[in-house]
Specification:
single chain, alpha/beta, Lambda Exonuclease, Chain A, Nucleotidyltransferase, domain 5, 3 domains, 7-stranded mixed sheet, 18 helices, about 15% strand
């Protein structure tokens, strides 16, 4: 039984196409990888669950998954035997050609012909998925198995859950054989390049760039970006990766190396000047005018939602945004005490009606509702309003009271050099308040909050659920409290009470 890991696989080939340096590091310096975030791990788990669900499209198949990542020779042997027997459905069918390994989600034998199905927990087919399929097709067919057709199976974005999951309606099969055949020469060349890279004795010299995040965030960013200066050109917002690459070709690595002769827009000049001067850029009249429109009483509002790939609640679609938590800080006047209220939905129940009622009760007093970037909060409230029209009037009244605190930052009425080109609430709060409230938090972002709550539906140890719910509440509390402190800090700059 072989314990040797295949030199190349479908996933490592995809990695090599994105970045040859990433491939080399993965094969030779694996321990330098970044630890997957909670959100990234949730995506992996989600893909696995959707893949397992797709087995129901072709039930009673044989699973050739290896007992561990080093035992794919067993999977290849099992697959070969089942192919010889013309078994109707094979899960995780494994093939090797020229030392390159590929495992196919589902292989079927129908009407005397072989068909390939690759499962994706996505609503659409991407260019990367087509490349992925091409690699698999190439390895499978070159290993000696002819394929009549190749399908990418995605999630049907029009599917509405009626309480009983119907997999044939939930999934959508799309033949991509024509697209695959167009990409075969590119894949063959990519294989050659990957093999050449692995034969090198030193780490490839590949500069950082757009490929660090596209099509997937590279798990060696921590290594490659470790020594990037805080004033690096990479932190300059508002310009493309290509433009940043042009700066690098001119020998411009940091923002302070940019001179007047360089073509920059007004926003970029503001940011550059702020970083050079090491002091905030403030447009006092516009900032004062914006803040003067904010009148007590005030609500500081943040909402968290999750988007299950497989619908959980009746009459919902895949990846539909469902709110589960909100935090609300309230201040009746400048002199009054800051109050707080929050609500979190119990795991497993469609709690949207109770969520709406609790939110409407909490905001029944007059007052403007302050949020940072209205996209999430307004989006959630509009969706609830449409799904539950009996509350339309009251929800719309709350929506009409919303003021976006992102505006003075987005419009550059205020910019702090410590933002480092970021306009997120966390970056702004860290810059203005000179502390990071989220640094030691178990949940550090909205994406992580969504991932944590989503995974609670699959949590086997129910004793851990209350603690994780408290983490989520603490995170959301911090969001609205930081929002309150940021608004107060802006007021102090303009002497507005």
């Amino acid at each position: 039984m072989s314990k040797k890991k295949s030199s190349l696989s479908k996933s490592t080939l995809i990695r090599s196409i994105q970045c040859q340096k990433s491939l080399y590091l993965y094969k030779n310096f694996y321990t330098l990888r970044d630890k997957p975030s909670t959100a990234q791990q949730q995506k992996f788990d989600r893909g696995h669950r959707v893949g397992k669900l797709a087995h129901q499209l072709f039930p009673n198949g044989k699973d050739c998954s290896p007992p561990n990542p080093f035992s794919y020779d067993e999977s290849i042997a099992a697959t070969k035997l089942l192919v010889h027997q013309q078994f109707p459905a094979i899960y995780e069918a494994a093939f090797k050609y020229n030392g390159i390994l590929a495992a196919l989600d589902i292989l079927t034998f129908e009407n005397g012909k072989w068909y390939a199905y690759e499962i994706k927990s996505s609503l659409r087919i991407s260019a990367t998925y087509l490349l992925d399929a091409t690699i698999q097709y190439h390895i499978i067919t070159q290993s000696g198995l002819p394929l009549e057709d190749f399908f990418i199976v995605t999630i049907n974005n029009e599917y509405v859950f009626d309480g009983n999951l119907e997999v044939h309606s939930y999934f959508k099969k799309t033949s991509v054989l024509a697209e695959i055949k167009e990409r075969i020469p590119y894949v063959e060349k990519s294989i050659e390049n990957a093999i050449t890279t692995l034969q090198q004795s030193t780490i490839p010299d590949v500069p950082i760039g757009a490929h660090c995040t596209k099509p997937y965030p590279c798990d060696f960013q921590g290594y490659c970006w470790a020594n990037i200066a805080k004033d690096s050109i990479w932190y300059l917002p508002g310009i493309s990766m290509q433009e940043k690459g042009n700066f690098l070709e001119m020998g411009i690595n940091t923002i302070d190396q940019i001179h007047e002769r360089d073509e920059l827009n007004s926003r970029q000049r503001v940011i550059i000047d702020s970083m050079r001067n090491e002091k905030p850029h403030i447009v006092h009249d516009k900032l004062s005018a914006f803040l003067s429109e904010i009148k007590y009483p005030l609500y500081y509002f943040d909402v968290e939602a999750f988007q299950p790939a497989v619908p959980i609640f009746k009459d919902t679609k895949p990846y539909e945004r469902i709110p589960f938590l909100y935090s609300l800080h309230y201040k009746e006047s400048a002199e009054s005490e800051l109050q707080h209220i929050s609500y979190i939905s119990p795991v497993g129940a469609d709690d949207r009606i109770n969520f709406i009622k609790h939110f409407l009760k909490a905001t029944e007093l007059p007052g403007q509702v302050l949020v940072f970037n209205t996209l999430m909060e307004k989006g959630v409230l509009f969706k609830l309003m449409n799904d539950f029209p009996q509350y339309k009037k009251d929800i719309l009244e709350r929506i009409n009271r919303i003021i976006d605190i992102e505006i003075p930052f987005k419009e550059l009425y205020y910019y702090h050099p410590a933002q480092q080109g970021s306009f997120s609430l966390k970056a702004i709060g860290n810059a203005i308040l000179n502390r990071n409230e989220f640094l030691n938090s178990q949940v550090k972002s909205g994406e992580e909050a969504m991932a944590v709550y989503n995974e609670l539906f699959y949590e086997e140890n129910i004793n851990e659920i209350p603690e994780k719910l408290s983490y989520l509440q603490k995170y959301c509390f911090t969001d609205t409290y930081v929002l309150y402190e940021v608004v107060e800090a802006l007021k102090s700059v303009t002497f507005i009470k």
